[in-house]
Design goal:
The complex is a heterodimer.
Chain A lengths: L1 H19 L1 H5 L2 E9 L2 E2 L4 E4 L5 E3 L5 E6 L4 E5 L6 E4 L5 E5 L10 E4 L2 E4 L7 E5 H5 L6 H5 L6 E4 L9 E4 L13 E4 L2 E3 L10 E7 L2 H4 L10 E6 L8 E13 L8 H15 L20 H5 L3 E13 L3 E13 L6 E14 L4 E15 L4 H8 L23 H6 L3 E19 L2 E20 L10 E24 L3 E24 L14 E2 L5 E20 L3 E12 L8 E11 L14 E15 L10 E7 L2 E8 L8 E14 L4 E13 L2 E5 L8 E5 L2 E17 L3 E18 L6 E3 L3 E3 L7 E4 L2 E4 L16 E4 L5 E6 L2 E3 L7 E2 L12 E3 L7 E2 L5 E5 L4 E11 L2 E11 L2 E4 H7 L11 H5 L31 E3 L2 E12 L2 H6 L4 E15 L17 E2 L6 E11 L1
Parallel strand pairs in A: 1-8, 14-17, 47-49, 53-57
Antiparallel strand pairs in A: 1-2, 1-5, 3-4, 3-6, 6-7, 9-10, 11-16, 12-13, 14-15, 16-17, 18-19, 18-58, 19-20, 20-21, 21-22, 22-23, 23-24, 24-25, 25-26, 26-27, 26-28, 28-29, 29-30, 30-31, 31-34, 32-33, 34-35, 35-38, 36-37, 38-39, 39-51, 40-41, 41-42, 42-50, 43-48, 44-45, 45-46, 51-52, 52-55, 53-54, ...
Chain B lengths: L1 H24 L17 H33 L4 E3 L7 H6 L13 H16 L8 H26 L23 H19 L12 H14 L3 H13 L3 H4 L10 H4 L6 E5 L3 H4 L3 H6 L4 E3 L1 H8 L7 H6 L39 E5 H14 L3 H14 L16 H16 L6 H7 L3 H13 L22 H6 L10
Antiparallel strand pairs in B: 1-3, 2-4
Classes of the chains: A mainly beta, B mainly alpha.
């Protein structure tokens, strides 16, 4: 009853107010107050009186004043924050603390050729904002994104300037190098993402499912990463400065034999293999009396500085963002570095209500010295007693085929000077509010100059050599897009987009490779004795594309959402008949929480959307002239030859990937908990594959559309604000992804081995390691004895080690005895110290039929875990990334321990310690004898396969923002400082430097002298004026 | 509604019309590479194609550290023992007659790549214009010569093999041929190609690194000897030795400079030589392997050379290390890195990687000895011994006389044995011995006796005795059979 009365009185009040009219509202008083967030006063916050047009904004101290009705309400709002409505109830001063928005459903997300409200997305798109990207002050995008997005697997290297490998939802193709996603920066396709300064990035969108990527058609089967750079947005010019200093050091050292261990190893090896060749051990020869730990000579503490400055602003007509950045990154390997200068100018100008023009200009210049790859092989293999410096202080030349690893690093340039210029100009015309047309032209100019010089001292034959090469990539894209968007009756939203684009890429490559340089004082190919014809060339390659594309979208109150894309692509890479490909997609979303029957759940489940999508995307990763008949060069003596090298296949066409995706977006408790889950199925068919053909034709392979690869997987991302009080906040997020990959079909006889161990065949996942499996190491010569049904017998010896006979299950055995042989039925019989390989077919012969799956480089689960605590102006965060269930093929250790090698190679002392040395040893590795015919240390075996799972504490960050009241007094808007510890802890069983490294698309997990991981301490400061 | 459909139709039609115009835009041709339409215009084009075949020969022979050359031509014979302990342990399998279908030398693919290029040349050269007939004909002769040379090697190494005489011009030409009989290949390709080349060749050309008329006469002699066609062998060797211009072009070097025929290989005696350029072809792994610990000059051969009658041979100390090479009782099981062979680089033996080292394919002494063999088979013993004695005299050895053989029951056989011995010493390390043994039907007996009286004596017993003639040929590489199911494996491999 009371309730009704209350309502009645309210109704009366409303009626009364209406009756009184505006007179009463005019009686306003001045309300003052201030607005702040966790970190202090906020500027430019909108203050509006409810149901009135009165507006105000806060000043630099967060203070405001507004004329308002003393009994009215004020709405305080700011972009990225939750709006608050404050009832005045006669108060004249108010204090408001705004909270950062947790749901941001109206946030705009960049999609192909346009934007969309996050709320209306129907595909699988993950976004990441500038704030998240910048927290760890990354030098490149890969470091910034790693572990942050479910389903995006990134493998990085600590080598300055090195490329990382990206994999979105597994490997879907069988061409090495064809697995990288498409990178689009401000609408422009780019090849090398390392040229982007992460500080310039406003947002990154990762498009994962076909419905999202199909608008990019033929290049999008591996997913698309869209990068949007910053633009000006505040009327007051905003100046940002940031600086960071990083100290890096090697995160893990590998055990290595010292001089004495090496001597023992050689003695053992000679004793066991009956070899007589002992390399020089003359105790009076200073070349062989050192005792070096090469890793400490090759790695050092490295320091890097990164400084960035930007200025941005906007008024009614113009928006601008101008930035410059410089980083000099030193590598932990001596004499390796990458210095990068980046500049960017982003300007948008509004000529009138209808016309907008804009420009994006970015220039990057880098100066890099790479480590020569061989230096790390020498570091681990070269005996410790070989000298590095001669008594006179000069570098020791090549000894017994082993170049001096320090000299290899220090002498001569291995320099890359790269210049990258990106331009994008556009004009946009809005005919009517609903219809606009945008035309743009963008271009990239990339120039790379390489200079390598190896002085005579690095060569076995004391012949100097050098290489100079110049590479120029020019590409341009012209795009025309018509966009229509209309909201009808405040319920139906209709969007349509149609466009056409032309694209051309061309690469010129010129290389000069010479020998016998007459002087060491000129480190370029300028004064030399001879030209290496096969490595001296000038080549050109190029391709063109033409595309039509369109999108239609419909939304009813954002409750029912439909999207459809279509793209029609033509590529110069394919034959005239098969040049054009059609890539359709469709998706829909259902926001079921908006349905009336879901009202009951609103308190807990704030927003929920179910997404379903289907689409077809393409891949055209082949040579530019893959469908044509071509001739290749060869050299005989000092003549150049030409002969047919590629057979034409005019029917070569697109590789297609069809993908289904189902996803669910859930938001609980006012956005305190957000969950996104996706399941997908990806089927690639007509794989562009180099098929082996009978070589009696004179050709080895032919590009054909053949074979198929399937991927399916599950992704989950959870964001939560666990605690939120006035001064304290605890946020965390977790993402992980499972992917299962399998090659569904492959042409007859198309089985391939990559790097001798990675099998490409039907029924196997890409990255499957295939070969012989070690059961044990035969302890005695007599251990190679089995019953007729292949049960191993136990040899029995007396006290004087004389062989007595066999036992089976503790009882004497006198029956038939079988023995394992190597290779064939007349092959050698394995002895003590040899490997007992798994004889799968139990024929007593270890041959090709006994190979099996030994592991797979692709992890089962990848992901990241992030957690952050904020207390007033302090923040503390930790970020873990993980990849579980993958194996690593340790090619480095194979190369070091391989018994074929000469005694001037050193295996790992750990491997040696676990090797068979004397009869009776129960060992993990075979005897270190030179028994090459038995192939005991064969490459395709599980001797070199290790668990590559890891969990890494990728970083811990402690940040502090100076109180704004304090910064104000020194004329700074904001200032924050932070300390970051990176890669300090990695939990992994891998014996090499690190289980994570970039690898080829088909040889995932192949570690061959990869650059070690660095652990870093980073100090940074950000200033805003 | 109708209007909308019409509009959509017009839009779609214009897209398709536009896209066909775009086909011109999308037509991108390689600039720094060529294709068959643009190639085969000048004699330079054809020469470039032949150069690629010589490059193939180099790549072919140097596969697996020179294993292919040594493996096909010499390792199966009694000249060298293969080190089972070294990295290239495949040498040992070859020497012990333990070939398998996965042995890297079982691969014939590079030969077929060369044949493919030669087939292109034979297909395109007749249509070329703008050159004199002499040049035109000589180009065609080179194509026939190279194809004959490749097939001659294939049938000697593998016996039966696919006979491909048409070029693979596009995807429709990709077929899976069966193995044709070696006799068919000999009759319908090798002999015919040589005959055509003989009518087309420009006799004035004398580039020792490429095709020349001397090389053609030598190949013709070699092929005739393989076919036991002694009349033609005498005829072709006669053309080389006794007709202009080759008669005066070639002469034997002096005995004191004997090793220069391989260490320099551009002497007056060299007819056809593969040149090695350090910059462009890398170091020569054939020479490296022949003179390093991968192979070991067989002890019986070294001992025989030391015996009276042979020990004054000027070739001996230029071919092998007569001072330091030692053969202890365990020399077959523990190779001591002291292989005797140093012909390619006397004294220093292990060549520096930096040297240009040639591989002589045909030289005068080889053909003189083949001619001697042919004359002997024809019963022209005096003429045969005259040819043989040219070589013996140069070597500083006494001349053989017909009278020496009076007591022999089979005079021809006895003389042939002496000629083959001469060839073994003269041509050691030059890739002749194995096919000499096969050609003369002595391979099985010689090798079985090598196993029994040499390897077994020094404790090596894991050889496979020759029992059947298919063992004289190589298996076909397993991968090649996988790629072409119509191929049948050799014998019982």
């Amino acid at each position: 009853m009371r309730i009704i009365t209350q309502n009645k009185s309210k109704l009366c009040l409303v009626a009364f107010l209406l009756f009184i009219g505006t007179n009463l509202f005019a009686q306003k008083i001045t309300i003052t107050g201030n607005v702040s967030d966790l970190e202090g006063p906020m500027q430019s916050v909108n203050i509006a009186e409810l149901n009135s047009s009165t507006r105000s904004i806060t000043d630099g101290n967060g203070k405001f004043s507004i004329q308002a009705d003393p009994n009215g309400s004020l709405v305080i709002s700011f972009i990225g924050y939750e709006s608050q409505t404050v009832k005045l109830n006669g108060k004249t001063t108010i204090k408001v603390v705004l909270n950062e928005s947790l749901q941001n459903l109206d946030e705009v997300v960049v999609v192909g050729y346009g934007t969309m409200k996050k709320r209306d997305i129907t595909g699988s798109i993950s976004s990441i904002s500038a704030k998240e990207l910048e927290a760890s002050r990354p030098v490149n995008l890969a470091d910034a994104l790693q572990g942050k997005i479910a389903g995006l697997d990134i493998m990085t290297s600590s080598e300055p300037g090195a490329n990382s490998s990206y994999r979105i939802r597994g490997t879907s193709t069988l061409s090495d190098g064809g697995s990288n996603p498409l990178f689009i920066v401000d609408g422009m396709e780019v090849q090398n993402i390392n040229n982007i300064n992460p500080r310039d990035i406003a947002s990154v969108e990762v498009l994962k499912d076909a419905a999202s990527t199909a608008i990019y058609g033929s290049k999008s089967a591996n997913g698309v990463i869209l990068i949007t750079t910053k633009e000006g947005n505040s009327t007051k010019a905003k100046v940002s400065l940031s600086y960071s200093l990083k100290q890096s050091q090697i995160s893990k050292l590998m055990p290595q034999m010292n001089r004495l261990q090496g001597v023992h190893y050689e003695q053992l090896r000679n004793y066991l293999s009956g070899n007589y060749w002992i390399p020089n051990r003359d105790s009076l020869n200073p070349s062989f009396t050192a005792d070096n730990f090469y890793q400490s000579m090759l790695f050092h503490k490295a320091y890097s500085n990164q400084i960035d400055a930007s200025i941005s602003g906007a008024d009614k007509r113009i928006k601008y963002f101008i930035s410059a950045g410089y980083v000099n990154e030193q590598g932990i390997q001596i004499n390796t570095y990458n210095n990068r200068m980046t500049t960017r100018i982003n300007v948008d100008y509004k000529g009138n209500d209808k016309l907008t023009v804009g420009s994006r200009v970015a220039l990057t210049a880098t100066n890099q010295r790479q480590a020569s790859w061989g230096s790390r092989a020498q570091m681990l293999q070269r005996p410790a007693n070989f000298s590095v410096y001669e008594p006179d202080g000069s570098y020791t030349p090549v000894l017994a085929n082993r170049p001096n690893p320090v000299a290899v690093n220090m002498l001569g340039p291995n320099d890359y000077k790269n210049y990258n210029l990106n331009l994008n100009e556009y004009v946009e015309y809005r005919f009517i509010p609903a219809l606009s047309f945008k035309s743009s032209i963008s271009g990239t100019l990339y120039q790379s100059n390489m200079n390598y010089f190896a002085p005579a001292i690095l060569d076995q034959a004391l012949r100097a050599k050098s290489t100079n090469s110049n590479r120029t990539d020019v590409s341009w894209t012209q795009e025309n897009v018509l966009n229509y968007w209309k909201k009808i009756n405040n319920a139906h939203e209709i969007g349509a987009m149609g466009g056409f684009s032309l694209q051309e890429n061309a690469t010129d490559n010129t290389q000069l490779n010479v020998t016998d340089n007459i002087t060491g004082s000129i480190p370029t190919s300028n004064a030399y004795g001879g030209v290496v014809m096969g490595q001296t060339y000038s080549t050109w390659t190029g391709n063109k594309m033409a595309s039509f594309f369109g999108r239609g979208s419909y939304s009813y109150k954002s409750r029912y959402l439909f999207n459809t894309n279509i793209r029609y692509d033509g590529s110069s890479r394919f034959g005239a008949n098969t040049r054009w490909g059609l890539f359709p997609s469709a998706s829909s979303g259902w926001r079921f929480t908006d349905e009336s029957f879901m009202k009951w759940s609103k308190k807990i489940l704030k927003d929920a959307k179910l997404r379903v999508s289907w689409g077809v995307t393409g891949n055209q990763w082949t040579g530019d002239f893959a469908s044509q008949g071509l001739y290749g060069t060869s050299t005989y003596a000092d003549y150049m030859g030409l002969s047919p090298s590629q057979l034409s296949n005019p029917n070569l066409g697109w590789e297609q990937t069809e993908q289904y995706n189902t996803g669910l977006d859930l938001i609980f408790f006012d956005g305190r908990l957000k969950l996104t889950a996706d399941y997908y199925k990806k089927m690639t068919s007509n794989v562009l594959y180099q098929v082996s053909i009978p070589q009696t034709t004179g050709f080895k392979t032919l590009y054909k559309n053949i074979g198929s690869v399937n991927n399916n997987g599950f992704e989950l991302a959870i964001n939560s604000t666990n605690i939120r009080t006035k001064n304290f906040q605890w946020n965390s997020s977790l993402n992980f992804a499972f992917n299962r990959n399998v090659i569904a079909s492959i042409p007859e006889g198309g089985q391939q081995f990559i790097n001798n161990v990675f099998i490409i065949d039907k029924g196997y996942a890409v990255g499957t390691m295939y070969g012989w499996k070690r059961e044990a190491i035969f302890a005695y010569n007599q251990s190679n004895a089995f019953t007729s049904d292949w049960k191993q017998l136990t040899p029995i010896f007396d006290k004087k080690d004389r062989f007595q006979g066999y036992q089976l299950n503790g009882e004497a055995y006198t029956g038939e005895i079988k023995q394992l042989r190597n290779g064939s039925s007349i092959g050698a019989i394995y002895k003590g110290g040899d490997v007992m390989w798994d004889d799968i077919n139990q024929d007593g012969v270890i041959d090709a039929k006994d190979r099996q799956v030994l592991g797979c480089g692709q992890p089962d689960v990848t992901g990241g875990l992030w957690t952050e605590f904020k207390y007033k102006n302090f923040s503390l965060s930790a970020f873990f990334s993980f990849a579980l269930g993958g194996q690593v093929f340790n090619e480095t250790e194979f190369q070091n321990s391989n018994q074929y090698w000469s005694p001037v190679t050193r295996p790992s002392p750990v491997v040696l310690a676990h090797s068979w040395m004397a009869p009776g040893d129960i060992a993990l590795y075979p005897s270190p004898a030179n028994t090459a015919t038995l192939d005991n240390t064969r490459e395709a075996s599980d001797l070199w396969i290790q668990d590559g799972s890891y969990i890494r504490l990728k970083n811990i960050r402690l940040g502090y923002s100076l109180p704004k009241t304090l910064t104000k007094t020194i004329g700074i808007e904001s200032m924050d400082v932070f300390v970051l510890l990176q890669n300090f802890i990695t939990w992994s069983n891998y014996s090499g430097f690190d289980p994570e490294f970039p690898s080829g698309g088909l040889s995932v997990g192949y570690d061959y002298n990869s650059y070690p991981k660095s652990k870093d301490i980073l100090f940074g400061i950000n200033l805003n004026f | 509604m109708k209007k909308t459909i019409t509009k959509i139709c017009i839009l779609l039609l214009s897209v398709f019309a536009f896209s066909s115009c775009l086909n011109d835009f999308l037509n991108v041709q390689p600039v720094s590479q060529t294709n068959s339409d643009k190639f085969w215009k000048t004699s330079g084009d054809a020469t470039a194609a032949f150069t690629s075949i010589y490059a193939d020969l180099q790549n072919n022979f140097k596969t697996q550290q020179g294993l292919s050359y040594i493996g096909w031509y010499e390792m199966r014979s009694d000249n060298f023992y293969g080190n089972p302990n070294s990295g290239a342990y495949y040498y040992s399998d070859i020497n012990k007659n333990q070939l398998t279908a996965t042995h890297p030398d079982a691969d014939w693919n590079i030969w077929y790549k060369s044949i493919g290029t030669a087939n292109y040349a034979i297909y395109y050269i007749p249509g070329m214009t703008g050159m004199t007939d002499i040049v035109h004909n000589n180009l065609l002769a080179e194509a026939y010569f190279l194809r004959a040379y490749c097939y001659f090697n294939i049938i000697r190494i593998w016996g039966n093999a696919p006979m491909v005489t048409k070029p693979s011009l596009s995807i429709v030409d990709v077929t899976k041929p069966t193995r044709d009989s070696s006799k068919l290949i000999m009759d319908s390709v090798i002999v015919k190609d040589i005959n055509k080349a003989l009518t087309l060749v420009d006799v004035s050309k004398a580039d020792v690194y490429r095709f020349n008329v001397g090389a053609l006469y030598s190949l013709a002699t070699d092929v005739a000897m393989w076919n036991h066609d002694y009349a033609n062998a005498v005829y072709y060797s006669g053309l080389l030795l006794y007709t202009s211009p080759t008669q005066t072009r070639y002469s034997l070097v002096s005995g004191d400079n004997f090793n220069t025929v391989v260490s320099i290989a551009t002497t007056s005696e060299n007819i056809w030589t593969l040149k090695w350029s350090y910059q462009n072809n890398g170091y020569n792994p054939i020479v490296q392997s022949l003179t390093s610990s991968y192979t070991l000059t067989a002890k019986p051969l070294v001992d025989k050379w030391k015996s009276s009658g042979w020990n004054k041979d000027k070739r001996r100390y230029q071919t092998i290390d007569t001072l330091n090479a030692s053969y202890p009782s365990n020399h077959l099981t523990a190779i001591n890195n002291n292989n005797a062979m140093w012909k390619y680089q006397p004294v220093t033996r292990l060549p520096q990687n930096t040297n240009e080292k040639y591989i002589p394919l045909y030289r005068l002494a080889d053909i003189i000895l083949l001619r001697a063999e042919a004359l002997n088979k024809q019963g022209r013993f005096a003429d045969a011994l005259t040819e043989l004695n040219k070589i013996r005299t140069r070597a500083g050895l006494f001349s053989r006389k017909e009278a020496d053989y009076v007591s022999k029951t089979d005079k021809t056989l006895a003389i042939e044995t002496d000629i083959l011995d001469e060839r073994q010493f003269e041509l050691l390390g030059e890739g002749k011995r194995w096919f000499d043994l096969v050609r003369t039907g002595r391979a099985i007996s010689t090798m079985n006796s090598y196993f029994e009286t040499y390897l077994k004596l020094y404790g090596v017993t894991n050889y496979t005795t020759f029992t059947d003639s298919w063992q004289l040929y190589w298996p076909v590489l397993q991968n090649n059979i996988i790629q072409n199911g119509n191929l049948v494996q050799t014998g019982l491999y």
